[in-house]
Automatic annotation (TrEMBL):
<dbReference type="Pfam" id="PF00106">
    <property type="entry name" value="adh_short"/>
</dbReference>
<comment type="similarity">
    <text>Belongs to the short-chain dehydrogenases/reductases (SDR) family.</text>
</comment>
<protein>
    <submittedName>
        <fullName>Si:dkey-174n20.1</fullName>
    </submittedName>
</protein>
<dbReference type="InterPro" id="IPR036291">
    <property type="entry name" value="NAD(P)-bd_dom_sf"/>
</dbReference>
<dbReference type="GO" id="GO:0016491">
    <property type="term" value="F:oxidoreductase activity"/>
</dbReference>
<keyword id="KW-0560">Oxidoreductase</keyword>
<dbReference type="InterPro" id="IPR002347">
    <property type="entry name" value="SDR_fam"/>
</dbReference>
Amino acid sequence: MYLLYTILASLVCFFFLKWLKKRRTCTDLKRLDGKTVLITGGSSGIGKETAVALALRGARVVIACRDPSRAEKAVREIKFKSHSLNVTHMELDLANLRCVREFCKTFLQREKRLDILINNAAIPGVLDWTDDSFSMCFGVNHLGHFLLTNLLLPRLKECAPSRVITLTCSNYKYQKLDFQDLNYNLLPFFTYCRSKLANIYFSQELGRIMEGKDVTSYAVHPGFVQSSWTCHYSFLFRMLMQVIMWMFFVPCETGAQTVIYCAVSDEAAKHSGGYFVDCRPATLRPFARDSGVAKKLWEASERLVKPV
């Protein structure tokens, strides 16, 4: 009898966890033939799954990664899964603004189109600094993508209608920006939360600036995903998180669904500057909808990276 109760309890727990992780999938089957997609951090996790899905739809996919060897391996896997040969990679280090500028120069020379830019790459809360002396989270997660997007905007406008999708996280709600200390680098979790809030403000302001120019912008929370972000931490922490992620987090393929939705959906295009969760628009906390703060962050970011 004890064994029966144990089995029943295990089954209940299993199905409860399965229900807890249930997410919508993108059902829009739109093709992307003739379109070019650029995905930062596309060598693993959500970025790679997004690359597979969009290559399957006929898009030319360029993944931008810091590690060329990992990128080459990812390109082979993406080609195999998508049955597409129109996938390539370019080297990009978002922690170095000079590298971002060189990347954009090379990309614009090499690629004649850019229809969808997916700002996917991110680093978790680590107490480190970029080559330009910005905190690693703020520098990579926000400033690197801010400069990248601004330098590629002319091509996005040429290829309009086009889209910019920036991945964020629901953890944004635990912090607010401090304009006296945008380079905050004390507590890793809070540093990460601030960078993800910056992603949301960036996406909103980009949507406002591009209004009427047929370039739309979306901030996407993909859910809590079983990705490789724990590689930055100790072995014991990684082991603990592997158990937690298996129980509560969703696979990368599931996490990519809202990104794919925002890349192809006509319905999503009606909500430029919006925040998306689970393949639909979601409501932000009031402080994260402040257009004045979004504009102020944009202007501060311009001063820091000098895009022109």
